[in-house]
Design brief:
Its EC number is 1.-.-.-. By secondary structure, the chain is an alpha/beta fold. The longest helix has 40 residues, at 384-423. It has helices at residues 2-8, 31-43, 58-62, 94-107, 202-213, 238-246, 251-266, 281-288, 298-304, 384-423; strands at residues 18-20, 25-27, 48-50, 116-124, 129-137, 143-150, 153-155, 162-163, 177-180, 194-198, 217-221, 228-230, 232-233, 236-237, 293-295, 308-310, 313-317, 321-324, 329-331, 334-337, 341-342, 375-377.
Length: 424
Amino acid sequence: MENLFRLADHENFFSRPSIWINGPVIVGAGPSGLATAACLREQGVSFVVLERAECIASLWQKRTYDRLKLHLPKQFCQLPKLPFPQDFPEYPTKKQFINYLESYAKHFEINPQFNECVQSARYDETSGLWRVKTVSTSAASTRTEVEYISLWLVVATGENAECVMPDIEGLAEFEGDAMHVSEYKSGEKFGGKKVLVVGCGNSGMEISLDLCNHNASPSLVCRSSVHVLPREIFGKSTFELAVSMMKWLPLWLVDKLLLILAWLVLGNIEKYGLKRPEVGPMKYKNTMGKTPVLDIGALEKIRSGDIKVVPGIKRFLPGQVVELVNGEKLDIDSVVLATGYRSNVPSWLKEGEFFSKNGFPKSPFPNGWKGNSGLYAVGFTRRGLSGASSDAVRIAQDIGQVWKVETKQKKRTIACHRRCISQF
């Protein structure tokens, strides 16, 4: 209560509705936020989840293509305390994963405050509390500003909060259809068209494959090096195999073995314009945060010529022409920018010690989950859903320890107060 009295002294305290949260404020209702909330629920800790969209996991529900499946086996993607249903396949579909997340939220009674867009969050040194300011839009489209006040702030907006739009000369004047991958749903409307897919990560590869399956002619821009691995090797998940090997072998040797196995299964991919990085796939992921492409059929289409691999883009020319860095010019009908996403934390979190300018914790995994003054981060490990889950467990345990101590102290105070009353 002392903290609240200090806060009330501030000039603008009563300028907007303020809500005291008896527990942490979690920003983001994606898998990371849901996992943290579930673990806190198991610890008996109260919380509130703020979500700018009108649904949980908005990235999955609104910004993913129809044919998407989890790229890793389900045991590496399930959230804490509740596994996937047993009848789910090894690689659940987008719809199945969304259903799982909705069941997860229902099971742990997680009810986010939807349509709450966080404008700013800062730590108030005077009161020792976090002040999270939001703008909410109701069904009636009325704009409401609210301030949430708490001892703890959990940043769960993740690595993929905002679309990355490349700055390419002439792109704004391109006369055909141009879209970010977040808007792409299916190749159905692209049948018979020449489509330039910019970006050769998992999304770019899979969209190129989807376009082929709908009789389009995709050209895949591969500007930088990329690791391509088979999704499975001899019937076993490549990722699962790598995890198993890393328990016993050094990382450099695991990378060496993965590349040998990939060469045996896929052959030499560099002759198709796909140059491998000098660093091995697992080390590359850990240091650069770039996940290897797990091939599910795109490489076969590249071999056959159905998907044409091209180098980087120099510029877009008037009309519907693109000039590549090697001087080649392509006539195209559409452009899909599979250029990824980034963190949006710097745009709203007023803090410079824990998070860097790129929106990621400065401390590398596994130490990037806890900052100072009750600040936490979940889902920034560059290790997918398994990394987010491990963060969520640590955060809930850390907050839970303080919560239990304070709860016991409150009970003692209440009991003493009652005895005093009874004596008079």
